[in-house]
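Sequence design from tokenized structure. All designs in this work follow the same two-part layout: the structure record, then the generated sequence. An example of the structure record is given first.
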């Protein structure tokens, strides 16, 4: 029986190598204009946040691959809380998988500030607003982006 310490070191495999793009986080913040209000109570359509997810995914592709890439699919989209005109959203993408040409992202949108009228009013005037502590998790999703093959 041979001693395992006498064996030659094995070659590194793909699972042994950590891709530096994994875990990359890109964050955008955006004020939600009243022009985006689509429903009663200044509620904003969920598609607005999906558009923001596309913007942050584009920056991920630029940072990881030097190309705008293409958002190929969404999965597990969950609308957890309303987004209103006058909110300030923080949208975050985290790279969770890197393939040859595809990247999987975890996406989240949080309301970090909201107008006082959307928080029950404070009597401080129509333009009063405040920070939400903690921020309100409004939308989550997973997405896959693809980039051109490297030449």
């Amino acid at each position: 029986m041979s001693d395992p310490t006498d064996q030659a070191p094995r070659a590194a495999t793909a699972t042994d190598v950590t891709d530096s793009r994994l875990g990359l986080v890109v964050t955008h913040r955006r004020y939600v204009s009243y022009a985006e209000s689509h429903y009663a109570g200044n509620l904003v359509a969920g598609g607005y946040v999906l558009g923001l997810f596309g913007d942050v995914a584009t920056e991920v592709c630029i940072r990881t691959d030097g190309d705008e890439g293409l958002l190929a699919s969404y999965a597990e989209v969950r609308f957890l809380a309303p987004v209103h005109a006058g909110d300030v959203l923080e949208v975050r993408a985290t790279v969770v998988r890197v393939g040859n040409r595809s990247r999987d992202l975890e996406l989240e949108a949080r309301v970090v500030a909201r107008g006082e009228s959307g928080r029950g009013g404070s009597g401080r005037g129509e333009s009063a607003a405040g920070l939400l502590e903690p921020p309100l998790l409004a939308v989550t999703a997973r997405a896959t982006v693809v980039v051109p093959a490297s030449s």
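Helices lie at 46-65. We note this feature because it recurs in several other targets discussed in the main text.
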